[in-house]
Design a protein that fits this description.
alpha/beta; TIM Barrel; 8-stranded parallel beta barrel; 11 helices; disordered N terminus; binds 3-methyl-2-oxobutanoic acid
């Protein structure tokens, strides 16, 4: 996929320090992050000029067909991070730490994060606030940049009683603000806010010196993230309210494959030009 085929030039490369400084209140453009799980999705998103690629544990749902993100482990993530890294993206490559990879001991968390970094990630993301502070500090102490994730944290699906908008009540909103402050204070370079009311996200965004990246958290965040398959119309599941679908690629793909199947069945594929021949006898 040569660069010249794409009218949109990729954004200049930005490392963790540049991303950390991207506050809209300081005049920065909103950050753009999208998930990617393999080489072609990373190439496509990077050519579109996004700032960050997230190898999300949503891999479990959108690529591997599971019902929740609890089904993927470090080896799965490692495999997909390596595929995304082979695309050599300009965007900063962030990898999700999967469930149970940072919940046991700090040593275990460090070695799991190191596997993702050695596979090609430049930073890791993990879910949770003050409860995860020890791990966050240890990772940052080991020079591994950390992105936080608060609000609807899909790895807590059972504890939350389902996928629900979080921090709707004053007390829960206060807790979320304190969690965000603690993560930023511990050195997280950005915090994802998922499915929280816009006023709560706006307050967190105004409070933190590091950027917030919203998904279902309103327009005040310093950036936005969406899942690749949701944005492109490749997922079958009913999309949440916050998804804006920019294409229906699943329909396009079904059309294309069924056209090819018809051609095969009608005997019009392959044509002569699509066939190898022996050289003509001299
Ligand atoms: O795994 C994921 O896709 C995510 C995004 C929803 C932020 O964590």
């Amino acid at each position: 996929m040569p660069d010249r085929a794409h009218p949109l030039q990729p954004a200049p490369r930005q490392g963790v320090p540049e991303i950390r400084a991207r506050k809209r209140s300081a005049g920065s453009d909103p950050l753009v992050m999208i998930t990617a799980y393999d080489y072609p999705s990373a190439r496509i998103a990077d050519h579109a000029g996004v700032d960050l690629l997230l190898v999300g544990d949503s891999l479990a749902n959108v690529v591997l067909g599971f019902d929740d993100t609890l089904q993927v482990g470090v080896s799965d993530m490692e495999h997909h991070v390596a595929a995304v890294a082979r695309a050599r993206p300009r965007a900063l490559l962030v990898a999700d730490m999967p469930w149970m990879s940072y919940h046991l001991t700090v040593e275990d968390s460090l070695s799991n994060a190191a596997r993702l970094i050695r596979a090609g990630a430049e930073a890791v993301k993990l879910e949770g606030g003050r409860r995860r502070l020890g791990v966050v500090e240890a990772l940052i102490g080991a020079e591994i940049p950390v992105m936080g994730h608060l609000g609807l944290t899909p790895q807590s699906v059972h504890a939350m009683g389902g996928y629900r908008v979080q921090a709707r009540r004053r007390e829960a909103a206060e807790e979320l603000v304190e969690d965000a402050k603690a993560l930023a204070g511990a050195g997280c370079f950005a915090v994802v806010l998922e499915a929280v009311p816009d006023v709560v996200a706006a307050r967190v965004t105004a409070t933190l010196e590091v950027p917030t990246i919203g998904i279902g958290a309103g327009a005040a965040c310093d950036g936005q993230v969406l899942v690749f398959h949701d944005l492109l119309g490749l997922s079958e599941a009913k999309a949440p309210k916050f998804v804006r679908r920019y294409a229906d690629l699943a329909d396009v793909a079904v059309q294309a494959i069924s056209s090819w199947a018809s051609d095969v069945r009608a005997g019009s594929f392959p044509a002569d030009a699509e066939t190898y021949h022996l050289p003509e006898a001299p």
